[in-house]
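Standup notes
- HV: blocked on the assembly model, inputs below
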Amino acid sequence: MDVFWREGYQEASLPALLEGMGITRGSLYKAFSDKKTLFLTILEHYEKSAVEPAVALLSDPETPDGMQRIEMLLDKVIEQVKQGDRRGCLLCTAAAGAASDDADIAHAVAESLGKMQRGFAVALAASPVHATRPDAERHAFSDALITQYTGLRILARSRASIEILERSASAILQLLRTPPPIG
Amino acid sequence: MDVFWREGYQEASLPALLEGMGITRGSLYKAFSDKKTLFLTILEHYEKSAVEPAVALLSDPETPDGMQRIEMLLDKVIEQVKQGDRRGCLLCTAAAGAASDDADIAHAVAESLGKMQRGFAVALAASPVHATRPDAERHAFSDALITQYTGLRILARSRASIEILERSASAILQLLRTPPPIG
DNA sequence: TGAGTTATGGACCCTTCGGTACAAAACCAT
DNA sequence: ATGGTTTTGTACCGAAGGGTCCATAACTCA
């Protein structure tokens, strides 16, 4: 997973993957029919090991304020970058790359990003500021959040300064915390 | 440019580029020393033909309200997708891909994205809602906007539904139009 | 322990990659 | 026209890509 995460789908070469997995071609092609199938399997693994925890965080009732959950998630992302991890998000990178030329991969990626987006919606519903707002608005905000999240992850991959990422994240939080005008 | 735009830096093959340019290898390597140099030249061209008009739009005093300029820009992006153009943004795709492993390319990309970001800042400064706010806040919002823009462009490349993109764009506009609490 | 099965290594296949070399063609000034 | 220069097309290069094949090694169970 790490190799795909670091290098992206297309760029991850078989030799690199094999070294990362500590096996050889024979075993890989015995277990997975080809590179694409391997990647789809990895996407499932990523969903379990990265997406689901993130969604769990966004849905965690132990943090009553949904906005705070979102803040925690974004903080995690920023913290990762601070520690030198510039891999970004496997899904976001796949969405950007030629991976999304393939219908199966594009579908799997969209599915996982959809889960994240619904996670944001759940968190918003648990926010005092947004709980009482119309469903449509929360839906739109969760769309904006998944977009923001994707942008953040992509810019993390490029060499954007940590300050940009931090300001960007705190700005979106500030905006979402501002109570909407009555009406 | 279109070939790189559609396929990304790494994925764009020499034969594809040659066909797109209507020339053959001999001429290409006469004019540009290699693929990377060609791409850097293309990035300059993209900056002139795509980034600068966008920045001009964001700075256009004929539209007095800066927020409206931003809305126009996002509308353009959405409109492009509506017309079936899923190429996204050359810079954003390059930022996501292995292109940003190369320091020169990463630098050029960051430079151009920086121009966009400053464009957003200029537009915000021309908005009644934000003109009187602290510089630091506008700066942070412009960071959030370039992040949002990147996310939008990446999701446009993947097969995200047009509705997500539309809601995402209008949500961020709505948030930015909400006057901040006094203080 | 030994027959039967499965997993593994790695040589090998073809294609495509970016890049070079160079002869033929096109252009140019005289 | 003609000699010299520049531009163009294309054959070719080594490297690396993903994928196949098969002999050997490693397991399994009687």
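- HV (later): unblocked. The first helix of chain B runs from residue 2 to 7. Chain B has ten helices and no strands.
- Next: hand off to the docking folks.
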